[in-house]
Amino acid sequence: MPDIMNGAELRQIREARGFDQQEFAEMLNDALGRKYDKPKISRWENGAERVPQLVAQYLKASNSQPSGIPTAIPGPALVMATLNQKGGVGKTVSVVNIAHLLAKAGMRVLVVDCDAQASATIHLGVYPADRDALKATLTHVLFHKTRIEHAIISVCDDSMDLLPSSISLARADSEINSRANGSLLLRARINEIKDRYDFILLDCPPHLSQITVSALNAADLVLIPSQTETLSLMGIPQLLETLADVQSLVNPAIRVLGILPTLYDPRRNQDRDRLADLTEMGGQNGFQVFPPVRRAVAYPTGVNEGKPGLAIDPNAAGCESYQEIADVMIDRLSAYRATQSAKEDLRHG
Question: Which run of H or E residues covers position 294?
């Protein structure tokens, strides 16, 4: 179960330690590597925003320690690949807005743009050609010896990080095929920085390419956005076949987080019928089907402004669906880290 703390409890802990709100924010930033400020602490205390699970976990753990405060909450990050081989299903919009909500909850978040179209890079206000000129894209990290930390940049007022992409990634399949264990390169690079984040979100291309397989090799979870129309649904069975191969050969721990219906219009019979099909598909495979996301002007507006749509309109249609996914991911994080810690104990026991 996630650690839960209300505003009154937070205020009591702060006051017991003799901190004002700014000093308390600075203490949390030093311990957790965040960028909280006085207004953020105030919003937690007055109930305008919920206290992030990571903060609650940290404060409760530190209160139980007679010698004071632990230095950090242990990693590693939970990695989620978001994919559907059909394009135009709201995949990138989903990644960016889920990342925004995770960051808003106090999580350390990295978005990795695995698509040569660089949709996530552009959506987050970064010009791909500029990053290519600096040799600081995913292409350079995978194939040209650029260290991953040198290619990562902060975006959205430093609330999250991005590993950008560019058109140079279009050659990824041939590069991967030409190298021994090429489909494990992405996994190896991500492993280098997993302990620096709580969540790493991989925005995959709209086809089952070698870079997509590489993302599956690196991921712990898979989210499948699907527009409520026939062509979008048709690609899911093949995707699941590929996922089964990855599970059996390389990454047995990977699991499907769920299916996210997108671009839903409840006025259309087709959308309602396809939503029923997705719900049935989820039930047959044991997958959660999240509430559908309707079209909303905030999402294309966000692309134009280089930020998540929910940063512009927190109450845009679909916000509840994205929040539910973020909540499920946060719940999974504690269990995931407990499992990883147990594995380490066995390895060194």
Answer: none
Q: Where are the beta strands (DSSP E) in 83-205?
A: 109-113, 153-155, 160-163, 199-203
Return the bridge partners of 145, or none: none
Structural domain spans, the chain:
7-63, 78-348
pLDDT in tens, 202-225: 999 988 889 999 999 999 999 999
Pairing type for strands 78-82 and 153-155 reads unpaired
Q: What is the DSSP letter of 256?
A: E
Beta bridge partners, 155, equal 160
Q: How far apart are CA 192 and CA 126, in angstroms?
A: 23
Which fold, 7-63? 434 Repressor (Amino-terminal Domain) (1.10.260)
Q: What is the DSSP letter of 266?
A: T
Phi (first) and psi of residue 258, to 5 degrees:
165, 180
Tokens of 331: 């719940």
Which region among 162-176, 230-244, 330-344 has the lowest average model confidence (pLDDT)?
330-344
